[in-house]
Amino acid sequence: FLPQVDSANAGRVLASDAAVFLKKSGLTDLVLGKIWDLADTDGKGILNKQEFFVALRLVACAQNGLDVSLSSLNLPVPPPRFTDTSSPLLLSGTPSSDLPWAVKLEDKVKYDAIFDSLNPVNGLLSGDKVKPVLLNSKLPVDILGRVWELSDIDRDGMLDRDEFAVAMFLVYCALEKEPVPMSLPAALVPPSKRKPLSVPGAMPLLPSSTKESHQSLPPVGILAAKTPLTQ
C-alpha cells in the first residue's frame, strides 16, 4: 500500500495523500478522522512508515467491527480492504455479490412480521415508525443511531423490508453484546442492494468467514411485545 501514497518514496505520507487513499476503505469520515488522530501520534499531519501501518491496521479493525483504539492493534484481523483496482487485496476471497446473506431465512420471517405490523406505506417504514422498535431494545442511543445509519443503505430516510431486517439483525447482535460495526460488512448487505464493488456504506469486502454465531436469536417478542403496534 505504501508506494501508492508515498510517490516521492520519502518514507512518509502527507495527510492529503493519506486521506484520498483511506477514503477507499469505505469507512465514514468520522471513523477515518479518529484513525488518523491515533496514527499521527505527534500531530504533525505526516505519517512515517510505522505510523502508516498503524493506520492500516486500525482500518482493518474498523472494517471488522472492532473498536478503533490502540488496544485493538494486537487483535487478529484480516488485511484492510480498499476499493482500488490496483490493490492486490481487492478481490481476494469471495466477491460480495456471491456471499450468502448473514440474515437467515427463519429470522427474516420474524423480522418481516414486525415490519408488516408497523403499517409500512408503499413497502417502506419511516424513521418515526422504526424508532419505537429500536428504543424498546434499551440499547444506547449512539448504538441505535449507528444501526439506523448502517441499515438505511440507500440513504432515503426510510427502511424497506430488507433494510429493516438488517436493522433487526444488528439490534440482536448488540443485545448479544457483539459490537455494531462501523461500516456494513459485505455479508450483511441484502442481495437486493448489492452492486459490483460499490454498495454505499458497505464498501469493505470482508471475507466470507464473517461471524455466524447468531444461530439462536432471542425471541423476537423482546422488541415486538413492547411496541404499541396499534399506533
UniProtKB/TrEMBL annotation:
EH domain boundaries: 1-83, 107-195
Matches recorded under CDD domains: EH
Residues covered by the EF-hand domain: 27-62, 139-174
One record GO biological process: endosomal transport
Organism domain of life: Eukaryota
GO molecular function term, any single one: calcium ion binding
Organism per entry: Acrocephalus arundinaceus (Great reed-warbler)
Gene it is expressed from: Eps15
Pfam families linked: EH
Stated name of the protein: EPS15 factor
GO cellular component annotations of the record: clathrin coat of coated pit
Coiled coil (residue ranges): none
Gene3D superfamilies: EF-hand
InterPro entries attached to this UniProt entry: EF-hand-dom_pair (IPR011992), EF_Hand_1_Ca_BS (IPR018247), EF_hand_dom (IPR002048), EH_dom (IPR000261)
SUPFAM superfamilies for the chain: EF-hand
Keyword Metal-binding part of the UniProt annotation: yes
Region ranges (Disordered): 193-217
Spans through the membrane: none
Sorted UniProt keywords: Calcium, Metal-binding
